[in-house]
Amino acid sequence: MLEQQQWTITATEQPLEWFIQAVKQYTPASSGLYAAQLLWQRGIKDRQQLTAFINYKAYQPASPFEFGQEMHLAIARLQQAYNTKEKIVIWGDFDADGITATSVLWDGLGQFFAQNTQLSYYIPNRLKESHGLNNQGIDNLAKQGYKLIVTCDTGSTNIEEIIYAKQLGIDVIVTDHHTLPAERPPVAAIINPRYLPKEHQLFNLSGVAVAYKLVEALYQSLPNVAKYPLEDLLDLVAVGLIADLVQLSGDCRYLAQMGIQRLQEDFKQPAAARRRPGVGRLLELCQKSGDRPTDISFGLGPRINAVSRIQGDASFCVELLTSRDVKRCNELAEVTELANARRKSLQKDVQAQVAQKLTQLDLSTTSVIVLEDAQWPAGVLGLVAGQVAQETGRPTILLSTEGAGEQGSRGAGEQGSRGAGEQGSNSSSLLARGSARSVNSVDLYQLVKEQAHLLHRFGGHPFAAGLSLLVENIPLFTAAINQQLRQSLGSTTLTPTVQADLTVTVADLGKELFLELKLLEPCGMGNPVPKLLIQNCWFENSWHRNQQDWQGKKVQYIKTEFDIQDDSSRSAFPGLWWGHYKDELPIGRCDCIAELDYNTFKKRYEIRLIAVRSSANSALNTQQWLNAPLSLTPFILDLRNQEHSAVAQRLATANTTQHSALIIEDCPTNWDDLRMWLRRCLAISRSTSGLDNQQQLAIAWSKPNHQPPNQIWLTLVGIAKYLSRTNQLVTRRQLLEKIGISDQTLLVGIKALKYLGFTVQRQDRSLQITWHPSDSAENLADEAVGRFLAAVREEQFQQQYFAEVPLSTIVAIASYDSK
Questions:
Q1: Neighbour count for residue 595 (Cβ, 10 Å)
Q2: Omega before 395 cis (within 30°)?
Q3: 82 CB contacts (<8 Å, ≥6 apart)?
Q4: Cα distance between residue 304 and residue 321, in whole Å
């Protein structure tokens, strides 16, 4: 069971009056107080800093030659290739930072080297090769006559591969931002901001930004060659920077600000006139307009990342981002959208399985969560690990043995570092590959590195890492890494924490506050999206639905919408909560932490709920109720997904006192169905006195074995035709048992039958069905059948949820109703 989150509020230091007035110049429609308070908290405390932070035109970016001798060496080698017409290949990476970095070099170097003849690019297959250089790929390049490799977002620690390339007559220029090698590798040049001091304005550059600086230096060195302006690359730089979650300070912020402006300007053009029609089509598919950093972090970034996670090969993404062929870009964008829909579905499946495994862990004695499964797809493990780490407050490592077995493979996030455990390992042994994510300032890379002797390969940075190891080493690795973190933490307790930046009311929410907070954009690490604490509020008009993909197909992803209200205003304010059901919202007054956003699709301001809990002064305090005496809640026996004989045995041995346990065998399709039983149980308990007379409720439904919705529809039509032909009557109960759907969904199906020419009439307690075929309403019939299929999918999804929902959630709902 997950621990309760700890909420904190950022210590407030009132900004000086002159600073508030300076900020107000940028927020003429409001006081500017909230923005001033946030900027002051985040270290912006003088006029020059403020101006440069808000207005990128006032910022002085660093020269690309701040990288010193290495940049000079790189440009000299590129000029040599330019003069001698050598063949060059860009060796990229498959995540959003690597794809955009490859695209920047493809477009940028493409101004100097003929694309496809002199210049090419190579993106490793995530599921077969993973990150970094590899000898097989280098062999293929040598056979094709390439003399220079330019890496981007990778390569710093590929020492052996770089030496191998040199032996084959291939020079390497490394552009990267990952972990540095112990010694300078034998490269033509290595451009990595980690060689710079931490306070340098280039230190936080991501892979795409480093690639851009290389192109910028080449533009300056060969000023009369390029046909397109350097600034045309900035939209790609912004996408990679924001998607890679680097600290957006110094040149990172400057480049992101300029890039978002270019992105928005291009999107406003008609599709045929856009410089990047592929990016524009992706924005349309995710219903964004390109003017917000969140359009990248929640829209473009996940879609680009999804391709390699699902398909392995993401090479076509470079074409998607750089081609000007509108038709081709539309096709590639739709393939990308489908991959993202598949990614969402897989991610949710793995999340549910991980949640089940977490219930078997004692988090009070667990410092690092390490879980494994043979069926988990490696491509989504990093995403799920990140979510688990946030929810539990503990570094999380998820491992999969799916498709493993080759000793040469690398896990997600690996940069080529080899562990001692690789030496002499049996090639027939099974490798587990996985991803790790960290929280609470725990340096995950260092934590993993300390166990290098148990690993096959590993790599990454303090907040994310990838690794692979022999399956037989997993227990030892788990014990060792937990012991290591416990020793380093001492008496410190790991707790999931949510931090709020400002306290506001519902009356504060809206356009004025949004424009104030927008001054801080683009947000990222070191400058997070402002979190707003709203106290003593309540929710109204809440509802949830499955999120649909761009083709209108159901995706197993939940979004709850609601209105929030408090005593500050008579008007409610809209909001949404991703990944949650409406029944998870507290009943009565509560506190919440949220982000203020603008929904460009619905053209409205809204909040995105981050965390919620019952108010300390509310009559319904969640923790008080969950810890209340048993007499306040029905006693629930969880007998789900068990054989009938096991259920009978448990009921026979359970202490049901004078009452027989109430048993629910039919899997619910909504919380109201379950609440009816809970209230009935509670009523029986209150009709007696004393704890000994506590009524028990046994939830004994099993995970449903669903038929495909189309098959259910065909069965319903077949039964209707048979009943019409034989003139037999049927009860609703008989129909429900035969088809396996709820009464409400059956009504939707009967409406669809009517459009096909069926007539359904009541006779006493039975139904009579007759059929007079007609095609006059074919379109309406298709729509009605579509609604029935959607209702069946929704019902099946809900039943799947109730087959697996934690007992703690059911108890919480029971606690609320018991009041």
A1: 18
A2: no
A3: 112, 113, 222
A4: 10
Which residues on neighbouring strands pair with residue 760, listed in sequence order?
769
Burial category of 90 from C-beta neighbours within 10 Å (exposed 0-12, middle 13-18, buried 19 and up): buried
Whether the Cβ atoms of residue 470 and residue 438 lie closer than 8 Å to each other: no
Q: Maximum Cα–Cα distance for the chain, whole Å?
A: 95
Convert the pLDDT of each residue in 586-628 to its tens digit.
878 899 999 999 988 788 999 999 999 887 543 333 333 333 3
Question: Full-prediction pTM beyond 0.85?
Answer: no
Q: Tell how far CA 698 is from the center of its chain.
A: 36
- Spatial distance between the Cα atoms of 597 and 200, rounded to a whole number of angstroms: 32
Strands 119-122 and 729-730: unpaired
DSSP state of 120: E
Summarize pLDDT for 571-586 with one digit per residue, the tens.
Answer: 899 999 988 888 888 8
Give the pair of three-digit tokens for residue 151. 């890496």
- First-last CA distance in the chain: 24
Kindly report the number of other CB atoms within 10 A of residue 34's CB atom. 23
Q: Which amino acid is at 494?
A: L
**In 68-86, which positions are buried (b, 16+ CB within 10 angstroms) versus exposed (e)?**
eebbebbbebbeebbeeeb
Task: Sort residue 785 into left (φ over 0), alpha (ψ -120 to 50) or beta.
Answer: alpha
Strands of the sheet with 766-771, listed across from one edge? 729-730, 766-771, 758-763
CA 149 to chain centroid: 33
Residues 6+ apart with CB under 8 A from 441: none
What number of CA atoms fall less than 13 Å from residue 407's CA on the CB side?
A: 11
Q: Does residue 150 contact residue 126 with C-beta atoms inside 8 Å?
A: no
Q: Which of 523, 671, 517 is nearest to 37 (CA)?
A: 517
